[in-house]
């Protein structure tokens, strides 16, 4: 259904989404801000480390982590061109999300789907300023924490989101990720 997924944001939700996609057997590119110091991918690494926490494991087993590649937005954003779904899970600030969407659009492959994990910002505001083609491939995929154990996924369609995009996301989420999808209004 999806060959490779990029998750932007390696916090609790982003790392959880990356882990659940990797659990489904899909390769993941997990990006976050570049860190100061020797390891520029340290922020993404911390997200992966949280998935391996034995008290609340986000991965089915340790081998799953090999499906998650780490990177940072500064050096590796161009690699989203390898992905057919980009899931954004960054801080809930519209200005940051808008800038990220502009940066992503320069690298996304034709037909790739872009989603946000937001639970607070209306999709109409998220898509403000997007070109019409990207608006048609944009939706909200709101996962719940902890992603591996919470079955619910809210799927929100925008005014311009194509029905086939919604179906593809719903089918993948139900069949591959084991989620109970509820389509919600904006």
UniProtKB/TrEMBL annotation:
Q: Which GO terms describe its biological process?
A: fatty acid metabolic process
Pfam families registered for this protein in UniProt? 3HCDH_N
One molecular function GO term is: NAD+ binding
InterPro entries from the xrefs? Answer: 3-OHacyl-CoA_DH_NAD-bd, NAD(P)-bd_dom_sf
Keyword terms of this UniProt record: Lyase, Oxidoreductase
In short, the EC number is: 1.1.1.35, 4.2.1.17
Domain 3-hydroxyacyl-CoA dehydrogenase NAD binding: from-to ranges: 4-186
Q: Write down what this protein is called.
A: Enoyl-CoA hydratase [isoleucine degradation] )
Q: Which organism is it from?
A: uncultured Thiotrichaceae bacterium
């Amino acid at each position: 259904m999806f060959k490779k997924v990029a998750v932007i944001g390696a916090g609790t939700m982003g790392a959880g989404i990356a882990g659940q996609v990797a659990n489904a057997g899909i390769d993941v590119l997990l990006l976050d801000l570049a860190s100061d110091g020797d390891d520029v991918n340290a922020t993404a690494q911390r997200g992966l480390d949280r998935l391996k926490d034995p008290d609340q494991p986000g991965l089915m087993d340790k081998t799953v982590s090999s499906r998650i590649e780490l990177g940072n937005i500064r050096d590796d954003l161009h690699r989203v061109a390898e992905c057919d779904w980009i899931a954004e899970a960054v801080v809930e600030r519209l200005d940051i999300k808008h800038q990220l969407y502009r940066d992503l659009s320069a690298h996304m492959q034709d037909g790739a789907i872009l989603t946000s994990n937001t639970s607070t910002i209306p999709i109409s505001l998220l898509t403000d300023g997007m070109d019409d083609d990207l608006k048609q491939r944009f939706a909200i995929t709101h996962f719940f924490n902890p992603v591996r154990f919470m079955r619910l996924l809210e799927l929100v369609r925008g005014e311009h989101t194509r029905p086939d995009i919604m179906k593809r996301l719903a089918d993948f989420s139900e069949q591959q990720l084991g989620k109970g999808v509820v389509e919600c209004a904006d």
